[in-house]
């Protein structure tokens, strides 16, 4: 039950007692006064007034009690005050006495205090001095080392500075770590380390930039040294060969025994150059690399340095491997490209051998393989633009020196020599193109007539250049003529020059004599079978080349074909590989010149037939004439005279060629005359025209029987006109009964007369007889004759139809 509840209950029971209880509660301070007062005011009306009355009565009671207590103790208080006043007088006397005594003591102890303070101060100073000396003895070495560090930094001795920092941190700073200056030093060391890293890295960057700029100079020096070493080795080998008598002709030009002076001069130059040999260390200061490597090693960050170095060098490698767009135009462009690459890898090789782990063999091999693939791709692309064989040859020499140089530093270069075989094919192609122009010029300048010789000197000069032997010609007096034209010795000389040029590329390829011999023979075969053959065929096809020139070309090819064996001997002398070797390639000159000769022969036949056609086109027959002129046509006589003069020129040709040409001409003439008779545009032919035509054919037969070209047996050449002869005889004699009776018999008099041919000509004559009345002399038998012709025509048509059905 709460306090308010209790107060309310009490007011209901006994108001007076209740107010007393409330006052007791208020004085006790144990219960909340707010609840007690609220119960007084809330329970009954006028309770407030009654309560105040009770409260005033309580106050009066307390006041009375207080007054009683004061009255009880007042006398004692008065007595105490009186005694205190008495004591105050004594206390003042005592104070005066104490003060005086204190003054006398103070005056007596002042001097002692001053001396004691002096002693204390001296002792403190002495102790401080001792402490300072001890601390200075600890701090001085630290300060000296730090001063040394500063001096090393100022003189750029960064590696020593890092070592000094290690000593400071491990030895000196722990002794004086409690001092502020030491903390400042400790805090400054990381900054110094970073400064050293930045400075060393800056020096490394300068070094990398420097070697990038000087790579070509480094590479040029390395390649020059490799070339000098190679020259020295080759010279030594040649000296040994000369010493042991192994002399032979090189390129058929310079005997090796004459090289002794050259060898001596080469050795003298080698001795002079020994003192001038420069190494990569002479050209490049590698100290920034060493210093930076040591610094990063001391700082424990060697891996970062290695990664940075390799990354930067790979970037430089890509720049070095990137060629200029016009590199293929000059040999200097290729040389600059090679020297930069050599310089790059010479530096890497030096770094590999003088540092521990900065670059490894695996890293350099990987870098070289990447570079080699790029180099091969670049060379393959740029060399394809080279059209000058001299430039390709210089490129080959540069590649050989480039490969030999890097091989000397331990880099594998087999793929470069494989590339040289590809470039060799391209070199041969450029040579073939160049010599194609040479051959064309020779053919253009040739007069296609036998070479006139007026003196022994001229004859000797030509024989020394071209292997020609003819005992009968040698016996003839001067002046005389060689059968070939000027182009033959020139072609032979140029083929040898081509072999020389091809041999130049084969040198220094580290190939055996057998392989070089095979290369020379294959390239020479290409020259003969493709270039020279193509030039000959183009020459033969040219319109301005006449029959006389074609005859001379055939003679020339014959002599060039005979000279092929001397070319094989020439190659054998160069390579010292016998032709009897199993794998020796043979020259294909025989087939080349035979093909050219066959083409020339075919062109002779063609041009001869064309000339015949030109003469035949001049024919102007009057196909309706009643009587012949009594002599052969003018165009035919001119044609026969032309053929006689041409066939006289053919006497220099091989017999079969001249015979074939003559037979071909007669057959073509016979065919042309036959076609003239059977021309579809020719609608009618008189007997007089047939008789005139017969006179022309008789001249052709006389020409054939005169043996314009020797070698024909019997009347072989006359058989070319047998078809015409039998046809004309059939119409001239009008022997149709015999023809029709003997048709199809092997012994027929008109065996070569085709029924279709006879029918065509007969119809042309039948139409003429109707218009011009050819058979006027037989006028009384005209009707019978017409019937006879009609009968013959019908029988010929039946024969023609029978042939077509049989076919």
Automatic annotation (TrEMBL):
<dbReference type="InterPro" id="IPR042044">
    <property type="entry name" value="EXOC6PINT-1/Sec15/Tip20_C_dom2"/>
</dbReference>
<dbReference type="Pfam" id="PF04091">
    <property type="entry name" value="Sec15_C"/>
</dbReference>
<dbReference type="InterPro" id="IPR048359">
    <property type="entry name" value="EXOC6_Sec15_N"/>
</dbReference>
<keyword id="KW-0268">Exocytosis</keyword>
<dbReference type="InterPro" id="IPR042045">
    <property type="entry name" value="EXOC6/Sec15_C_dom1"/>
</dbReference>
<protein>
    <recommendedName>
        <fullName>Exocyst complex component</fullName>
    </recommendedName>
</protein>
<keyword id="KW-0813">Transport</keyword>
<feature type="domain" description="Exocyst complex component EXOC6/Sec15 N-terminal">
    <location>
        <begin position="54"/>
        <end position="223"/>
    </location>
</feature>
<comment type="similarity">
    <text>Belongs to the SEC15 family.</text>
</comment>
<dbReference type="Pfam" id="PF20651">
    <property type="entry name" value="EXOC6_Sec15_N"/>
</dbReference>
<dbReference type="InterPro" id="IPR007225">
    <property type="entry name" value="EXOC6/Sec15"/>
</dbReference>
<dbReference type="InterPro" id="IPR046361">
    <property type="entry name" value="EXOC6/Sec15_C"/>
</dbReference>
<comment type="function">
    <text>Component of the exocyst complex involved in the docking of exocytic vesicles with fusion sites on the plasma membrane.</text>
</comment>
<feature type="domain" description="Exocyst complex subunit EXOC6/Sec15 C-terminal">
    <location>
        <begin position="416"/>
        <end position="764"/>
    </location>
</feature>
